[in-house]
Amino acid sequence: MRMRKESRSDPEPARWRAANRRLRLIALAAIFLAAGAARAADQVTTTYQSVTIGSSTPLWIARDAGFFERQGLDVKIVFVEGSPRTMQTLIAGEAQIVESTGPATLNARAAGSPVVIVAGYINVMPYYLIADGSINSPADLKGKVGANHMPGTAADTVMRIGLKALGLDPDRDVSLRPIGNTPMRLQAMAAGAANFMVAQDLELQQAKRLGYKVLVDYVANKTPFPMGGAVTTERYVKEKRDVVLRYVKAMAQALHYLKTNREGSLAIISRYARFQNREVMGAAFDAARRLYAETPSPPTEGFDLVARELAQRNPKLRDIDTKSGMDLRFVRELEQSGFLKSLKGN
Prior knowledge:
Blueprint: H1 11-40, E1 42-48, H2 57-64, H3 67-70, E2 73-79, H4 83-91, E3 97-100, H5 102-110, E4 115-124, E5 128-131, E6 145-148, H6 154-165, E7 175-178, H7 182-190, E8 196-199, H8 201-209, E9 213-217, H9 218-221, E10 224-233, H10 234-239, H11 241-260, H12 262-272, H13 278-288, H14 300-310, H15 329-336, H16 339-343
Parallel strand pairs: 1-2, 1-3, 6-7, 6-8
Antiparallel strand pairs: 3-10, 4-10, 5-8, 5-9
Helix pairs in contact: 2-11, 2-12, 5-14, 8-13
């Protein structure tokens, strides 16, 4: 049987060709839209400095609760222990925004690095001075060994400020040993290698179980202190202003989430914090979340306090303008736009 030839009067092949063209166009459009969506998410590498409940926690929340994603940010978070090291990561260009502290920010600026803090997460001293059974009063600290963090960290700065407030010289009256982060310092005490340390809420709960006492409650004193916040470079602010604004916006959402969603917060914290006892972690979180800032603006008074302490060992900080290390325009914009107010449902 002879095959029927296509003719101009036969409409079927023409319709098929037209339908195929439409399908190809739709497929190409979908590909281009997908590629455009992928490009729309700005990529940012950031670091967090601690594995305890505290100033690093809002960053975990912003990442895992999806607040960065909602702001069109593809954020990779990396653990880099200690604020001086996180600052080195920023200055080296390995991260664009880092979670760091006031002491690290001021030390970096004194060394000539144009870094700025654009948001504050915890703006009071979130520490307790805890001690073993050999210490019953501040006077008993003389001659004792303190488990300390590396020089220039928030814990080291708080330790020194706190000891001076008790009338002690941190370089002469006690022996401060740079042990490491909070869990490591607590391990040193448990092993009998140290008699006192400063701890945050998670380790405080563990310390109490070990029979240690709180010698000074810095949290109750509500001393202004730039414990943790978002730090970037002046150049990045200039070149990526919108990215920084969206980053600060996501962090503001994370802070609100911490204050209003206990179970969701604990589920995320358990993925990052090294201590996994649910009961202890819950008690530590309940104590810590009262510290998170309502408005994510770094404390001016806290920077002045830190600068005075650091200047004792770094003469370059004696005449530094502490306000130069803070860029408050992003928080102010979120206030003026009503965004921060909207988080509270007002």
